[in-house]
Structure formats: structure tokens, C-alpha cells
């Protein structure tokens, strides 16, 4: 079973029992958090969210039923699957316990391997249900043609344009990507990340993308091709929109001039774009100045011009790319990412190499958010 | 998930979680909005116990700032670890929030 959904909170006033269950479950890959009282358990729940709670009934001061009532009253905790594990097994107690929306009521006399199997089964069932729900929403989204990343990249003569996208734990997330071609002369490249994860961010990513698409088209109709001015306009609309007022997004907006190799770049709270200059064989981070979309009216957007020469490469990323799960916990490290890129840019097969170092199954296990990367190379 | 300490001219709010992420972002926002509604409009958020911040939490922090500003207040941040400090600079959150290295005696 995957490591997901394997965090368990164990509550029992007897230290010996806690140790015994914890030992058996740890062997099965569970991360066990132990509490000897309801007070301790609540304390753990303030900062940790277990995937399942296993609780004794008979405990001094506050018993397991009272604990269950506390859990049910709190919206942060009430959806966590709850199991009673107790030696109080008369029918009256069992019935009362089962009536408290618990998934099981396990007798403490049950052999430990069977307890472990029961817990594993519960978790399997929850995971399957979960995957099924995600799948159903995915199908609905597909049917409505709601996409936050394009099906394919456009072909531009003289350039290679590619992208990588991976959702977090198979949830759609807040990242969005798009390419808009204008008359074979210009191509706009869009990469953004609506802050937040999972459904909320995913839903808003469509709204943002719609705004951005229409802003680009309207500006182009008016003969305005400045990325800074386009981003400025998008920001103004978003700040004033009461629905989106509370939602924030990063945006990297680039416009490639096909004939000249000039790339106009403006960003809103995004990560620096990595530019590999083939003639100098060097890599640099190009920073933009603008604030996240939706923060304030004056977003302070600037426009950088990157003059691409033959063999030059650009890498545009979302923040998920620089977040890692390490032994010491989660961290964000742009410099580490840049270091990794420096090794793989400037090669004939740079894109595949980038894919291998960032999206390999081993590496992407450490991802903690959805991740996007756009690669541009001038032939 | 927060602990408050009144200071001269501002209220210091300590975040009491190690991972400031999506799971706690809503709760943080609710608790901070309550503080602002009680009249504490000048707030300094301490990240001394925080090792990692995700974008959902940053989003909540900006919403809190916008709410405080609508009541003529301000939100600043203090005690960011190296990674979080770098992230703030990289995505220009340091232009949105005043970032302090240590708690000032008086809010400037």
C-alpha cells in the first residue's frame, strides 16, 4: 500500500497496550502517534491530522465516548475515520459506540494481526472511495472541457516548446498552463499557480485562465503587446472582482517574437525564469518584480526582454517544483533546483534530461504540491 | 494554533505549528480575522516555530493583510527561517509585508 493515508493516532491510558499496537502497526508502515489521555490526543490533533484514530473506551477523567463526542463537534476532525478498541464489549456499550458514527468497534482480545488487517482494510476502503470520487469529478471536468493545461503545445517554426505537468497525489491543483499564438508572429506563454491546493485552487484556475486569455486577446486587438501592461490589466480586474478578491495567483507571462527571438517577460509573484545562454554557456535566473495577482491595485509589474539566440533555453516553473519532502520535513529551495538545472541545460536532449531529474518517479515522490515546467528552446 | 502577546503598539501573534499549510490555513485565517474584529488591527505574525509554509497558507496571510488594511491596520512578519525568508524574497512577499528579523520594541 502506498504511504498515503497511513498516519494513525492511538489513544489508550495503558502504556503497554499503546506500545504493543504501535509496534505492530509500525511494522506495517504506519506512522503512529500515541496519546495516553484525551487531553494529550487533542493536543496532538492541534498540529497533526491523522488518517485514522484508534481509541480506547475506558480511561480516567474523559472516556472514549466523550472523546468521540468532542471529535464529532469539531469540523476539522469529524471526518477522520474513528475506531474503538476496547475490552468493554457488552452489547449495550458496543451499540452506543457504533451509533457514534465510528467505522468499527474492535474487541481488545482480538489477535493483533487481525486488528492490523482490520485497520488496513478500513484504510484501503477509504482510499478506494476517495480515488473513485476523484475519478468521477475528473470525468465530469473532461466532459465539460475544463482543462487547466493544454492537450498539446503549438508548433512554432524555429522554436521548441514543451511542458511538463504533474498533479499532486492525483488531485487536480491550482497550476495552469496555456499557449496563445497570434498570427504566426507571436506566441504568449502562460504559467500560473492559484494559491491553495486541490479542488478550490483547481476550480479557480479556470477562472484565472479565462481572465488571462481574454485580457491577452483584448490587448492584442488594441495593438498592445506589452506583457507588463497585460498583466497590469489582469491584476486590476482580479483585485476588483469580489468573487476572486480572496484568491491569489502567481503568473509568468512571456511573449515570444518569432522573427527576432525576443522574449518579453513579466511576472506576478512567480519564481525567476531560468535562462541558458548557449554562446556564454551560462545559466542565469531572470527575476521579475511584480506582486501576486489580486494583492493590490498597483502590482508593480515590469517587463524584461530576453534576447534568445540559437541554442538558448528558457525554463519557467511553478512553486511546486522547488518544494521537497526531506528527512527534516518539507522545504522550499529554489537554489537547489537551479543547481540541478545547470547540469542538464545546453544539451541536445535537455528536455528529456530535465524530465528525468525532476519528474522521475523516484524524485517526484518528494513533491508536495502540483508541479509545472515549461521549456523553450531556440533552434 | 496561535498565541498572542500584546506589545507596544502592536499585537504579536505566534503561529504554533511547524508546517503552515493548507490543513491549518483556514483556521489561521478565522482566528486572525477574529483578532482584527476585536480591534487588533496592527499585527505582527511570528514564524519562529514554523519550518515550512505552503502557498495556501501564504494566500491566507495575504487575505488577512487585505482585511487588516481595510480597517486601517497592517500585518507584518517576523522570525522567518532562511528558507521561508528566501521564498518571501523570491515571490516578492517582502514587498507586500514588512519583514522583521527580530521583534521590534515599538511598531514603526
Automatic annotation (TrEMBL), chain A:
GO terms for molecular function: protein serine/threonine phosphatase activity. It comes from Paradesertivirga mongoliensis. This is PP2C family protein-serine/threonine phosphatase. InterPro entries: Bact_Sigma-Reg, CheY-like_superfamily, PPM-type-like_dom_sf, PPM-type_phosphatase-like_dom, Sig_transdc_resp-reg_receiver. Keywords: Hydrolase, Phosphoprotein. It is an enzyme of class 3 (hydrolase). Its EC number is 3.1.3.16. PROSITE patterns: RESPONSE_REGULATORY. The keyword Hydrolase applies. It holds the Pfam family SpoIIE. The modification 4-aspartylphosphate is found at residue 56. PANTHER family: STAGE II SPORULATION PROTEIN E, STAGE II SPORULATION PROTEIN E-RELATED. The keyword Ubl conjugation does not apply. It comes from the Bacteria. Residues 7-123 form the Response regulatory domain.
TrEMBL record, chain B:
The lineage of its organism: Bacteria, Pseudomonadati, Bacteroidota, Sphingobacteriia, Sphingobacteriales. Residues 25-108 form the STAS domain. It holds the Pfam family STAS. It comes from the Bacteria. InterPro entries: STAS_dom, STAS_dom_sf. This is STAS domain-containing protein. It comes from Paradesertivirga mongoliensis.
Amino acid at each position: 500500500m502506498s504511504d498515503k493515508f497511513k498516519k494513525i493516532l492511538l489513544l489508550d491510558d495503558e502504556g503497554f497496550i499503546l506500545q504493543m499496537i504501535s509496534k505492530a502497526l509500525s511494522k506495517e508502515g504506519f506512522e503512529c502517534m500515541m496519546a495516553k489521555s484525551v487531553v494529550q490526543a487533542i493536543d496532538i490533533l492541534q498540529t497533526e491530522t491523522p488518517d485514522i484514530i484508534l481509541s480506547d473506551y475506558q480511561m480516567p477523567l474523559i472516556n472514549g465516548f466523550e472523546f468521540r463526542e468532542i471529535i464529532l463537534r469539531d469540523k476539522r476532525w469529524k471526518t477522520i475515520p474513528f475506531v474503538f478498541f476496547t475490552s468493554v464489549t457488552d452489547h449495550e456499550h458496543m451499540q452506543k459506540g457504533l451509533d457514534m458514527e465510528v467505522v468499527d468497534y474492535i474487541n481488545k482480545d482480538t489477535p493483533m494481526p487481525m486488528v492490523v488487517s482490520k485497520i488496513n482494510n478500513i484504510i484501503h476502503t477509504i482510499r478506494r472511495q476517495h480515488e473513485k470520487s476523484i475519478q468521477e469529478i475528473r470525468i465530469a471536468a473532461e466532459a465539460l472541457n475544463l482543462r487547466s493545461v493544454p492537450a498539446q503545445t503549438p508548433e512554432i517554426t524555429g522554436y521548441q516548446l514543451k511542458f511538463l505537468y504533474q498533479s499532486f497525489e492525483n488531485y487536480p491543483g491550482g497550476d495552469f498552463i496555456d499557449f496563445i499564438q497570434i498570427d504566426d508572429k507571436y506566441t504568449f506563454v502562460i504559467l500560473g499557480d492559484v494559491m491553495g491546493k486541490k479542488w478550490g485552487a483547481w476550480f479557480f484556475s479556470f477562472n484565472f485562465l479565462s481572465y488571462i486569455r481574454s485580457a491577452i486577446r483584448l490587448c492584442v486587438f488594441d495593438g498592445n503587446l506589452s506583457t507588463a501592461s497585460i498583466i497590469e490589466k489582469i491584476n486590476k480586474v482580479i483585485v476588483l472582482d469580489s468573487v476572486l478578491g480572496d484568491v491569489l495567483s502567481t503568473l509568468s507571462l512571456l511573449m515570444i517574437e518569432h522573427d527576432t527571438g525576443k522574449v518579453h517577460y513579466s511576472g506576478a509573484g512567480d519564481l525567476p525564469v531560468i535562462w541558458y545562454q548557449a554562446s556564454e554557456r551560462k545559466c542565469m535566473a531572470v527575476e521579475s518584480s511584480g506582486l501576486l495577482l489580486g494583492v493590490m491595485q498597483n502590482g508593480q509589474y515590469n517587463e524584461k526582454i530576453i534576447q534568445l539566440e540559437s541554442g538558448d533555453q528558457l525554463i519557467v516553473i511553478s512553486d511546486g517544483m522547488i518544494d521537497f519532502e526531506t528527512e527534516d520535513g518539507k522545504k522550499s529551495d529554489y537554489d537547489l533546483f537551479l543547481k540541478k538545472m545547470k547540469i542538464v541545460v545546453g544539451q541536445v536532449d535537455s528536455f528529456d534530461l530535465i524530465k528525468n531529474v525532476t519528474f522521475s518517479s523516484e524524485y517526484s515522490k518528494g513533491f508536495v504540491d502540483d508541479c509545472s515546467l515549461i521549456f523553450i528552446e531556440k533552434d | 494554533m496561535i498565541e498572542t502577546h500584546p506589545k507596544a503598539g502592536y499585537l504579536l501573534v505566534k503561529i504554533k505549528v511547524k508546517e503552515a499549510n493548507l490543513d491549518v490555513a483556514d483556521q489561521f485565517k478565522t482566528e486572525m480575522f477574529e483578532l482584527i474584529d476585536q480591534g487588533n488591527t496592527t499585527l505582527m505574525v511570528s514564524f519562529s516555530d514554523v519550518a515550512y509554509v505552503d502557498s495556501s497558507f501564504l494566500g491566507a496571510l495575504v487575505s488577512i493583510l487585505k482585511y487588516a488594511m481595510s480597517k486601517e491596520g497592517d500585518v507584518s512578519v517576523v522570525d522567518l527561517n532562511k528558507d521561508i525568508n528566501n521564498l518571501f524574497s523570491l515571490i516578492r512577499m517582502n514587498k507586500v509585508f514588512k519583514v522583521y528579523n527580530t521583534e521590534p520594541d515599538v511598531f514603526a
